């Protein structure tokens, strides 16, 4: 049994995507229902250049009642300072619930750490949101393991509800969570919401040239813009081609069937086109990879682990 599938709505309302109005959102949600996906992941700042539009589009679609929705507390541009004061959290939640047109969200997450607000105030804010019926559970996203452990320790000390979910990056090229995050989650009954399963598109294999160099948006200002990552991807793409499989299929089947995720974890799927959703679910539905492909994914990780082993 594979981890639960969640649809990430960060691109709803974003220029250049198919998801712009009520009809397109209704079509998307109906497709997700048919595919057995009934959970949505959004945030107060989605999409980045039209903040709140994602929640607004979800709330306006009548069929959204068939879905549970997770959202994240609004975060400003900067280092996150002040995002998780109780006043800022309440303002964010009020706005999210209004846009989503529902009294409660499934999981309310901290989008990222707030280095300025005392941790006790942050955690108290989430306790208040649950007590007020605005969220069923809470969680954190993109937090360093050390901060996550501090939060858990504080909850145990105060007798507060611990975070139930941790959302972070996890894919064949970014596996630091296996040693740095998952042991903490397993020890405290938390589940992992794994995002960026395709490494923002790098694992499609279309962004490395014939000489093994990253291209397009990955050519610079990217954690993949390294000779090691590009060379490893070139070898991986060649191996996939030799076995008549597309890299995107291998990446999707790996995270669902061969990664460290368990049945209580979830994979956040992303798509800018409706067809991509069905393709990803179909790929996952093909089941585990042949052993030679599993070996290929391990070779890929071995090649980049010296420089990417601690990344989460």
Main sheet properties: 8 strands, parallel, barrel
CATH class: Alpha Beta
* Tally of helical runs: 11
What amount of the residues lies in strands? 5-15%
CATH architecture heading: Alpha-Beta Barrel
Give the uncertain stretches in residue-range form.
Answer: none
Structural features, described:
With 312 residues, the chain is of the alpha/beta class. It has a single domain, classed as NADP-dependent oxidoreductase domain (TIM Barrel). 42% of the residues lie in helices and 13% in strands. It contains 11 helices and 8 strands. The chain has helices at 22-34, 53-60, 86-100, 119-131, 145-158, 177-180, 182-187, 227-242, 247-257, 274-285, 291-308; strands spanning 4-8, 39-41, 68-72, 105-110, 135-141, 165-169, 191-195, 266-269. It has an 8-stranded parallel β-barrel. The longest helix has 18 residues, at 291-308. The mean pLDDT is 95.
Provide the fold topology.
Blueprint lengths: L3 E5 L13 H13 L4 E3 L11 H8 L7 E5 L13 H15 L4 E6 L8 H13 L3 E7 L3 H14 L6 E5 L7 H4 L1 H6 L3 E5 L31 H16 L4 H11 L8 E4 L4 H12 L5 H18 L4
Parallel strand pairs: 1-2, 1-8, 2-3, 3-4, 4-5, 5-6, 6-7, 7-8
Helix pairs in contact: 2-3, 3-4, 8-11, 9-10
Features:
TIM Barrel, 312 residues, alpha/beta, single chain
